[in-house]
Every structure is written in C-alpha cells, then in structure tokens.
Amino acid sequence: MGAINGIIWAIIMAFIAQLWFHDIKISAVIGFAIAINMTAANVSGISIPLMLKRMNIDPALSASVILTTVTDIVGFMSFLGLASVLIL
Fold it and tell me: Closest Cα partner for 12 from 39, 40, 38, 34?
C-alpha cells in the first residue's frame, strides 16, 4: 500500500513539475526522487520501530527522530543524485 501511495504521489508531482517547468528531465527527477523517498519512508517506518523493540528500546522515544533522519538523507541523496545523473 505504501509503494502504491508513493507511485501515485510521484506521478502527481511529476505532472505538476512538467506543467511548471516544461522540462521532462526535471519532472522525471522529481517523480523518481519522490517514489524512492516514499518507499524508503515506508520501509523505515516499519523496520525502525521493530528493530528498536528487539533491542529493548522504547520505539516511541526515538523512532520518529531516526525515521525523520533517514527520510531526509534519502530524499536529499535521491534528488541530488538523480539530478546529477539525468540532468548533468
């Protein structure tokens, strides 16, 4: 379900970027970066609390901080990495 949500939002945002910038490369970078980031957020949102619970750490205390860090890093790296590969 999370992957479907990521793909839907990626398509919507790529379409909006295409209308805004009139450049298919920028639209592709934005769409792929959103799909990658949403997928990473879904996987991290499931696995991080489970791993913390297995290590006898209360997931409510630190899961949100770790999840935010993971999604920020993956978001920046996927967007900038794809932009450097597809646009440069």
Answer: 34
Q: Which residue range(s) make up the domain with 60?
A: 2-86
Q: What is the dihedral of CA 44, 49, 53, 58, to 10 degrees?
A: 140
Q: What's residue 67's pLDDT?
A: 92
List C-alpha distances in Å: 36 to 10, 23, 28, 76: 9, 20, 12, 11
Task: Quote the number of domains for the chain.
Answer: 1
Q: Model confidence at 1, in pLDDT bands (50, 70, 90)?
A: confident
**Residue 55's CB: how many other CB atoms inside 10 A?**
8
Looking at the predicted structure, is the pLDDT value of residue 3 above 90?
no
Neighbours of 2 (CB within 10 A): 13
Please tell me the predicted confidence (pLDDT) of residue 62.
Answer: 86
